[in-house]
Amino acid sequence: MVSDKKFPVTPWYKQGWPWFLIALPATAVVAGTITLVIAIKSWDGLVVDDYYKEGKAIVRTIERTELAKQLGLTAQLKVRSNSVRVEVSASDLDNVPGAIHLTISHPTQSGFDQMLTLRGQGGVFEGAIAPLSTGRWLFQLENESRNWRMNGTAYLPTETEIRIDPSGS
Predict the structure, then answer these.
(1) Distance of CA 125 to the CA centre of its chain
(2) How far apart are CA 142 and CA 12, in angstroms?
(3) Quick check: 77 and 124 in contact, CB under 8 A?
(4) What is the DSSP letter of 79?
(5) pLDDT attached to residue 84
(6) Mean of pLDDT values over 77-103
(7) How many CA atoms lie within 13 A of 163 on its CB side?
(8) Among 71, 98, 94, 69, which residue's Cα sits nearest to residue 86?
(9) pTM above 0.70, yes or no
(10) Cα–Cα distance measured from residue 159 to residue 113, given in angstroms and rounded to the nearest whole number
(11) How many angstroms separate the CA atoms of 96 and 72, rounded?
(12) Which residue has the higher pLDDT, 2 or 131?
């Protein structure tokens, strides 16, 4: 027996289920578009084109640190709000240069990096720097010919005196 009752028929766009099913893929399309825009507008800078050349540079970096160790070089950095003082000492005073290159780098934001050439006497070098924000900073010292180098890190503003000793002691 067939009932003669008719159910009220509502158009599909007035029902909830079709809109729920449309919303799922629509959300994925919007999220994918946002991700694409972010990927296009930002640059991570992590891709290396020539791995062999980078490997050779790493070996050269290790050799430069080893030379600083062989020369018995150590450094004491004192970081103030707008200046830095570097005291370099060596096992032989003839190995202390008259000028050094100091690179202050932020580990994640290269826009804050500073490169200074400091001249001094008796292993004491001073120079003005732009104020450094709170956080971890990398300090690299090199002689003028860039034969040797020493690296150190500090968390500013709590660590304002940094000792750099390539021999690790």
Answers:
(1) 25
(2) 73
(3) no
(4) E
(5) 95
(6) 92
(7) 4
(8) 98
(9) no
(10) 18
(11) 10
(12) 131
